[in-house]
Here is the input.
Amino acid sequence: MAKIVVIGSSNTDMVIKSRTIPRPGETVIGGKFVCNAGGKGANQAVAAARLGGNVAMIARVGADVFGEQARNGLAAEGIDVSCVKADPDAATGIALILVDENAENSISVASGANENLSPADVDEAEEKFGLISGADILVVQLETPMATLLHTAELAEKFNIPLILDPAPAPKEGLPDELLARLTLLKPNETEASYITGIEVTDRSSAARAVENLHQRGVKQVIITLGKEGVLVSDGTGEPVHVPAIQVEAVDSTAAGDCFSGALACALAEGKTLVEAARFASRAAGLSVTKLGAQQSMPTRNEVEG
Ligand code: RIB
Here is the structure.
């Protein structure tokens, strides 16, 4: 089975869902609490694995109870955790997440061990396990150091392995052209696409202009997610294709983008076309929004295809 390797973050998420998200200085009483595994990278790995993908992860957690739980949780999903290291010098990443009655969230992350994921960690994963040269698809995000991402992109180019970047959290300073030129696929949401291109993306027509900008800068395939408006898919050979979103009763939008990226990687690894993979990912992401939490909200294959 084609191999997906996710290089990125792992966090423990402390989530409160209540009616509103408090303003500075305000206390809101009457919420529901869950603690579950998160982190954009780990969420993507779990989304892909739960949908049937063959997944390995390169990451750092702390040498603490949260790190042990995170690593065990990934292993329980069938993910190869040989390169998920326990860092003796940092705590596991922690995200404090507030979700309101409209399923919108607000997230604060203490990155901890994620900040120590280094180019040397990626080299070690390659030298010991061939995890880069032996991958069929590499998936990265922006919650770990840029130097590690750039190094991964160089290796992806060297070994000719497709590289998917989910540019979250949104890069306010944009992204370097040397990185964009090495990407096979970029999957921003509206805000991320706006920061990266300088074009304010608010609808399908502005998204189409952003797609064009990204192709000009060397990105081969682009998928811009537009929330309830669905996604715009482009392989650079013609007009972008619009894939509508499924209608759901939203509980929590946290990790919907991660679910999309993980499901997309899984579908592409299976040989689906870009548009077919986007449809599959769109359905998976829609279903993830119907449950509270990050990894615990990722759907199964039966749920997506049922
Ligand atoms: O994308 C959602 C994720 O962002 C959460 O799981 C949290 O850990 C933060 O990394």
About this structure: The chain has ten helices and 13 strands. The first strand starts at residue 3 and ends at 7. Residues 3-21+30-296 form a domain with the UDP-N-acetylmuramoyl-L-alanine:D-glutamate ligase fold (CATH 3.40.1190.20). Residues 9, 11, 13, 38-40, 43, 95, 107, 109, 143, 254-255, 258, 294 surround alpha-D-ribofuranose (CB under 6 Å).
